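Hey, quick one: can you model this chain's 3D structure?
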Amino acid sequence: MKENQDIEALRKEVTELRKTVYSLKDTIIELTNQIETGSSDSPFEGNQYSIFPNRSNCLDGDASWDRLVNLLHKEDSGLTAAELAEKWGKSRSRTSEVLNKLAENGQIIKYRDGRLIRFRSAEE
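Sure thing. Here's the predicted structure for all 124 residues.
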């Protein structure tokens, strides 16, 4: 019985989180449209700024990527995504996502070390 109550509580929480996410998406779209059309009394008039310079991939604008690459410069043997996530202060999945993008762009090197996947600076 307790397990069913826990599951139901989790379902309600997930439903509320979904509502919040959808609300935030709508707000972002609305604000972006206001900025692009200049339809508000915003300091962003004239399309000087863009919330999403590349809407197809919002990952490209992460300002802390340089810090992640700099962490790799200090490590000769390379680091795993989990090790970097801890140092970078982001989740392992987000760190792995960014690392793979950086490796695709040639900014870092991804290699296998036994069973581990490591990343190191491309400037060595």
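One thing worth noting: Residues 48-61 have pLDDT under 50 and may be disordered.
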